[in-house]
Amino acid sequence: MHDSRHRAGLALCLALAGCATATAPDTGPSAGFGLDSPVRELVASVSPSGPAERGLRAYALRIQTLGAGPETRVDVLGRQAWRPGGILVAVTGSQGAGVFGMSRSIGLCGLVSLRLDATITDQAWLPGDPSRAPLDEVGFTDEVRLDPLTRMQVTHLRVDGRPCSPQPDAGFSLVLETRSSQAGQGTGVGTTLAGQVRYDCRAGPGFEPASRLHPRLPGAMLRVDCRRSGTAARSGGQLAYAWIASSGVYLLTEHRGQDIAQHYVYTDVVLDP
């Protein structure tokens, strides 16, 4: 069971592209669900200034994982909303190998998570609506209270280029310094981690119909490939995204690491009217 939980949590974490840390003495991320002021200000400066043409409100996807063992499948249901200041909040529920996971995150245009909480539950729950509550009160679900088992927070962010408005054949990079904490299993003693992760990304040669990713996605999309490296073991990897122009967000489509390969298939999408 422990291995199944680890694999399900890993798949969910990688789906959000937000888990890359290395052990170091540090204080854990704050309990409040928000961003540090310098990070929040930088996000506001690089995020789209206006509302999305057709905002992506919800999605369902299937993650297929190939690694050292047999193929593993995780089903994910996510809901997301733009908040003032270019903050994109997402709440997801996942199910794999009989294990249920929940996460809430604040992302940079869907490319990386800047604040991420995750937990394991004993049953599937509908993810909470991130557009309803104040940011500090966004819950894993609208029905019950669930406490995080793990937390991740970006404490410093450096951006080179235009990650939230990519153009064909253009590159950009991100450097994230992170803190994370994990509750102890049985002992009550938690673990605190700190580290750095870097993304070097380049867009493809041209736009293509977004309907190639899902039939109901309107307009155009741009393929973007990123190389991830960091101080943590196994933090390196290759990530493939689709930039959905009409929604102003990235959707992760593939992840390849040292001993893992994940493919993301979007089975449903819900757009703003």
Tags for this model:
14 strands; twelve-stranded antiparallel β-barrel; 273 residues; disordered N terminus; mainly beta; single chain; globular
Describe this structure in words.
- With 273 residues, the chain is mainly β.
- It contains two helices and 14 strands; from the N terminus they run αβαβββββββββββββ.
- It has one domain (2-266).
- Helices cover 9% and strands 49% of the residues.
- It has a twelve-stranded antiparallel beta barrel.
Write the topology of this structure:
Blueprint (H helix, E strand, L loop, with lengths): L1 H14 L6 E2 L13 H10 L9 E12 L4 E12 L3 E10 L2 E10 L3 E10 L28 E11 L10 E12 L8 E13 L4 E2 L10 E11 L6 E8 L4 E8 L3 E12 L2
Antiparallel strand pairs: 1-9, 2-3, 2-14, 3-4, 4-5, 5-6, 6-7, 7-8, 8-9, 9-11, 10-11, 11-12, 12-13, 13-14
